[in-house]
Design a protein that fits this description.
The complex is a heterodimer. Helices cover about 80% and strands about 0% of the residues of chain A. By secondary structure, chain A is mainly alpha-helical. The longest helix of chain A is centred in the middle third of the chain and has 35 residues. The two termini of chain A are about 20 Å apart. In chain A, about 35% of the residues are buried. Chain B is an all-alpha fold. Chain B has one domain. Helix content of chain B is about 80%, strand content about 0%. In chain B, helix 2 packs across helix 4 and helix 3 runs antiparallel to helix 7. At the A-B interface, helix 3, helix 4 and helix 7 of A face helix 3, helix 4 and helix 7 of B.
């Protein structure tokens, strides 16, 4: 058995994993938090992306929007990661071989790389372009990548239940 | 008059048959519903946090709410249309579901509040300090929309 699969099986068989899986209410409640947490994580970062594309809040400089949404987005990330990990804990052995789950993990890795590139390149000179109605193409590309990847993560996440 | 005939008609409509007989129909429409939820939730959150005076204090509420209202209404239309398609798959189950009934009541309340008192709070506050009334409007709005979401999630569970 591959190491990752072995770890998944250990999590699945653990007390916590079994307790979440066998409880009548735990899984649906955590899942509801996970679903509604989408608004906090994806809803807020999407606003920054739409601003860089020049679609909303044009009079407000990028840095003001970024400073506003980052605490919300990060709170959303903590909520999503915690609730998501608990869901995974309960279903780890099944998730391991679930194609939708694998796609979701790959997309999550990619969506993490996107801001790394963004913040170390075009965002370093943000003060030169923060007031522009439409951001430079590299920022727009990052925005489109973010919107596409987060949509993909929601799609793949929903699909986990169907495989 | 009971709305039951409307639910029966929806279940037997072309849309209903399409949704009931397709393997991936429900999953795909549900995903669209979720994607629109992200945008709607984000827009509601930003407007109401501004109304509370927590974020973007120096920016005019008028500018923020004008742009985000369009986003909110656009995503609301997508959610209602996808919601009707989801409803058509299991219209009678929803008709008798307490969670669905709660969701419709809360949605009506959220919509009514949004177009009346909430709008007035946005216009009155604009660039000023948040008043007790604007804060209350933001809290009521956040609670109603959260209620719609929680009740909606509960339809699939109860």
């Amino acid at each position: 058995m591959p190491l990752l699969q072995h770890i998944c099986q250990l999590l699945y068989d653990s007390h916590v994993g079994t307790a979440i899986r066998e409880s009548d209410n735990a899984f649906p409640i955590i899942e509801s938090v996970h679903v509604l947490g989408i608004t906090l994580l994806v809803g807020t970062i999407a606003l920054l992306d739409l601003r860089m594309l020049g679609l909303v809040l044009r009079p407000i400089p990028i840095t003001r929007i970024a400073r506003t949404v980052f605490p919300l987005t990060w709170s959303g990330f903590v909520v999503m990661f915690t609730s998501g990990f608990l869901l995974f804990w309960a279903e780890a052995a099944k998730n391991y071989s679930n194609p939708a789950f694998r796609v979701k993990l790959i997309l999550l890795a990619l969506v993490g790389i996107n801001p790394l590139i963004f913040h170390t390149t075009i965002y370093r000179r943000v003060h030169e372009w923060e007031a522009l109605t439409i951001s430079p193409w590299r920022a727009r590309a990052a925005a489109i990548a973010s919107l596409t990847l987060w949509s993909g993560i929601i799609i793949a996440g929903r699909a986990i239940a169907y495989f | 008059m009971s709305p039951l005939p409307w639910f029966t008609a929806l279940a037997h409509s072309g849309l209903g048959h399409l949704m009931q007989n397709s393997k991936w129909g429900f999953a795909i429409v549900e995903t669209v519903h979720l994607l629109a939820l992200a945008i709607l939730g984000g827009a509601v959150l930003i407007v109401d946090l501004r109304l509370l005076g927590i974020i973007l204090r120096r920016e005019s509420i008028r500018v923020i709410s004008r742009d985000l209202s369009r986003l909110l209404l656009g995503s609301l239309v997508v959610m209602i249309l996808s919601g009707i398609a989801l409803l058509s798959e299991e219209a009678l189950k929803c008709y008798y579901s307490p969670a669905f009934r709660w969701k419709m009541v809360l949605l009506a309340a959220a919509g009514l509040f949004y177009f009346t008192l909430h709008r007035r709070a946005l216009v009155n506050t604009d660039t000023g300090e948040p008043t007790r009334w604007s804060r209350a409007a933001a809290i009521v709005s956040l609670s109603l929309w959260l209620g719609v979401g929680v009740a909606g999630r509960a339809i699939g569970l109860l």
